[in-house]
Write a structure and sequence with these properties.
This protein is of the alpha+beta class. It contains 6 helices and 4 strands, in the order ββαααββααα. Strands 1-2-4-3 form a 4-stranded antiparallel β-sheet, sandwiched between helices. The chain is globular and about 45 Å long.
């Protein structure tokens, strides 16, 4: 696998078919979130941290998966607030009317907050989601 640090809390991992075979799984395992796929993502995120000297905060985690033209797959692990906001904006598309307003307000609060305050808001938001799930 190839690793590229893109920001303080953002690393891209490029995986080939051979990398998937090494882990005894397929891309479908990742996309379907099978046990093997989840294991692969955890290991890839750990390897990103080790190889690129990133200390994950475990707040505002996003994952962007992109199919590359050469048959490889890009996994972009990020804990950047900006990426988290983009992910929330994508969620707005699927949100019902009851959820849309509060979600827009939350996004605005994140955009207006300092980095530390935004991390506190996201941590609180994620804890509430876990409690209600």
């Amino acid at each position: 696998m190839e690793y590229r640090k893109k920001a303080a809390l953002k690393v891209e991992c490029i995986a080939s078919k051979e990398d998937f075979e090494f882990f005894g799984m397929t891309l479908e395992d990742v996309l379907d979130r099978t046990e093997a796929g989840i294991y692969f993502l955890k290991k890839a995120k750990e390897l990103c941290a080790m190889t690129q000297k990133v200390t994950w905060t475990n707040v505002a985690y996003t994952l962007n998966i992109t199919m590359l033209s050469d048959g490889k797959v890009s996994f972009e692990f990020s804990e950047c607030i900006e990426d988290y906001i983009v992910s929330l904006r994508h969620s707005l598309v699927m949100a019902d009317e009851e959820t849309k307003g509060p979600l827009e307000e939350f996004i605005q609060a994140l955009e207006d907050a300092s980095e530390d305050e935004a991390r506190r808001l996201v941590a609180h938001f994620e804890q509430n989601i876990q409690k209600n799930s």
